[in-house]
Amino acid sequence: MKKLLYPIIIGLLAVVLTACGSNDEADKKNDEKETKTTEKETAKATEEQQKQMEEMQKKLDKQKVDEKKTVAIVNDEKISGAEYNTVLSTTQMQMQQLGQDPTTKEGAKQIKEQTLNSLVGQKLLLQAADKKGYTASKAEIEKQLAEIKKPYESEEKFKEALKQAGLNSETLNAQIAENIPYTKYVEKEIKVEEATDEEIQKYYDQVAEQAKTSGQKVQKLEEMKPQIKKQLEQQKKQEKLVKHVEELQKNAKVDIKI
C-alpha cells in the first residue's frame, strides 16, 4: 500500500498547486530562478575555494625536502627528510588553525625552525629514553595499533587514511615503537606537582571573565575543576619538558643540515 500511496499524493498535490492561480505560478518561477542563481553562485564559490586550496597546497609542498636527505644529525643519529616532512605538515596545519599564513617568508622561516626544534628535541628525548632502558614490546605495539584502528570501519578505510597521511603500515609501526618508550620516559622522568586550589581558582577566574565579556554562560568551578586541574598539570609538564630538552641539548652534538 505504501508504494501506491506515494504517486497518488504527488498527483493530488499537482492538482491543488495548479488550482492556486497564476500568482503562485509566477512566484514559483521566481523561486526557481532564485534557486538556480543561488546554486550557480554556490558552485562558483566552491570552485574558487577548491582552487585556492590547491594553490595553497602547492605552496606548502614546496617547503618539503627530499625524503632521503639528512636534515640534521643529533649525537651521530640522522634525521631524514621523510621525518622532517611529516612534522612539517603538522606544523603547517597548526599555523593555519591559528589563522596564520605558513607560506609567507616569515611564516616559512618560523615553520622551518619549529619543525627542526621539534625533531631535535624528540630525538634527544628518544636517546635519553634508550639510555634509561625504556623499550616497547611487541604486545604494547600491537595494543596501541589496535587502539588507532578502532575508529575505522574496515581495514581498507584504515589503509586509505594512512595513505592520505603519507604513511604506511611499516612507518606507522616504527612511529608507535618510538612513541611508547618516549611516553614512558616523559611520564616517569618528567615529574610535576599537582595543581593547587589557588592555581585552579586563578585560572577559573580568567576563564569566567573571558566568558562574561563575550556573553557566554559560565560553568560553576566545581564542574570545571577536574578539567582545569588536568590542563594546568599538562602545561606544567610541557614547560618542564622544554627545560629538560634544553638541558639535554647543552651536552649534545647537533648539526643542522638545511
From TrEMBL:
<dbReference type="InterPro" id="IPR050245">
    <property type="entry name" value="PrsA_foldase"/>
</dbReference>
<feature type="region of interest" description="Disordered">
    <location>
        <begin position="22"/>
        <end position="62"/>
    </location>
</feature>
<keyword id="KW-0732">Signal</keyword>
<keyword id="KW-0697">Rotamase</keyword>
<protein>
    <recommendedName>
        <fullName>peptidylprolyl isomerase</fullName>
        <ecNumber>5.2.1.8</ecNumber>
    </recommendedName>
</protein>
<feature type="compositionally biased region" description="Basic and acidic residues">
    <location>
        <begin position="25"/>
        <end position="62"/>
    </location>
</feature>
<dbReference type="Pfam" id="PF13624">
    <property type="entry name" value="SurA_N_3"/>
</dbReference>
<dbReference type="InterPro" id="IPR027304">
    <property type="entry name" value="Trigger_fact/SurA_dom_sf"/>
</dbReference>
<dbReference type="GO" id="GO:0003755">
    <property type="term" value="F:peptidyl-prolyl cis-trans isomerase activity"/>
</dbReference>
<keyword id="KW-0413">Isomerase</keyword>
<feature type="signal peptide">
    <location>
        <begin position="1"/>
        <end position="19"/>
    </location>
</feature>
